[in-house]
Amino acid sequence: MAIGFALLPGNECRPLKSLEDLAELWTQSDVRVWVDLESPSEEDLQRLNQIIALDDEALEDCLHGEQQPRVDEFESYIFLVLYGLHGLKEQEDLDPHKLAAFCGTRFLITVGRHPLLSVRQVRARCGRHPETLLVRGVDVVLFEIIDTIVDYYLSVIDRYEDRLEALEERSFDMDVDEEVLEQVAEVRRDLLELRRLAVAQRHLLQPVAKGEYDFVSETLGQQFSHVCDHLSQVIDSVDSLRETIVSIRDNYHAGLTRRTNEIMKVLTLYAGILLPLTLIAGIYGMNLPLWPPQNHPASFWGVLSGMLIIAGFLLVYFRRRRWL
Predict the structure, then answer these.
(1) Torsions phi, psi of 208, nearest 5?
(2) 92-145 pLDDT, tens per residue?
(3) Which of 25, 28, 228, 302 has its CA 20 to 30 A from that of 4?
(4) What CATH number was assigned to the domain covering residues 4-255?
(5) CA-to-CA distance for 213 and 205, rounded, in angstroms?
(6) Helices 42-51 and 56-63: crossing angle, nearest 10°?
(7) Contact present, 74 and 52 (Cβ < 8 Å)
(8) Separation of first and last alpha carbons in the chain
């Protein structure tokens, strides 16, 4: 599989099979390249540094650590740290993948420790239609990658909206269990992480949208502004979903209170039925002459019948009052 593309004079686009192909073409001053390295080794980055001189600390950040999204400006390029949400296999939990990008006048280099679906899609489009991307500039390729990453942010928000709607429906059930709260806590944690990434990436893209960097065309400013708007939409959606989480918790606790009250009411009613029976049994069990006499053959059944009559009367009374 190609690691990137080179745009030759005459708008001829050639795939790059290896870093050696890059070394061969890089000596031509009118060649523009996009190199995408997925899970590269230290040796790959060292070889890349020999071909295109890059900052050592920035190269170190490509593979190590979990840096905040940021953009650093160097003499001949800018260095960006971004985070995408979709690998090649979609996961249930939020699993951000770091993407480092070097963007200069003639080159775009993207480095990821894990494959990103958004980068794969842009690379596929570039292979099929290079005239729509690389011919227009490497900064256009960078924009397409960032735009696709943010589009996946919106799709993830939609997925969490569906999950919370299902949890909200469950929270109205009388027999709702604590699993709802556990799932809500997981969603809340993911949403907070998603909001943090969206805020940080909107912050780093705002100066790009204003044209403050020489290596990004001013004509892309409005398009980057739209990306910032999409990130703002993500942030607003997260805030809205957090209100839904509060509602689900309130529904759960209200249902728990209703269920507890229902249990207490039933127990109280049954205790109310048993109380007079216990009183009769206690009095009749006293060592005193009573009516009917204890030694009479029908005394036990007479007292038991009286208890059943009282219990039945109380049951009918409670049902008519709709307490049971």
Answers:
(1) -65, -40
(2) 667 888 999 999 989 999 999 888 888 988 888 887 877 678 888 899 999 999
(3) 228
(4) 3.30.460.20
(5) 11
(6) 150
(7) no
(8) 72
Q: Please, are residues 35 and 4 in contact by the beta-carbon 8 Å criterion?
A: yes
310 and 276 Cβ atoms separated by less than 8 Å: yes
Q: Are 227 and 80 in contact (CB under 8 A)?
A: no
CA nearest 140: which of 43, 44, 221, 57?
221
Q: What is the pLDDT of residues 194-251, one digit of tens each?
A: 999 999 999 999 988 888 888 888 888 888 999 999 999 999 999 999 889 998 888 8
All residues at 6 or more sequence positions from 312 whose CB lies less than 8 Å from its CB, including other chains: none
77-84: strand order across its sheet: 12-16, 4-8, 32-38, 107-112, 97-104, 77-84, 70-73
SS (H, E, C) 187-223: HHHHHHHHHHHHHHHHHHHHHHHCCCCCCCCHHHHHH
Q: Locate CATH 3.30.460.20 in the chain.
A: 4-255
**φ, ψ for residue 321, nearest 5 deg:** -80, 0
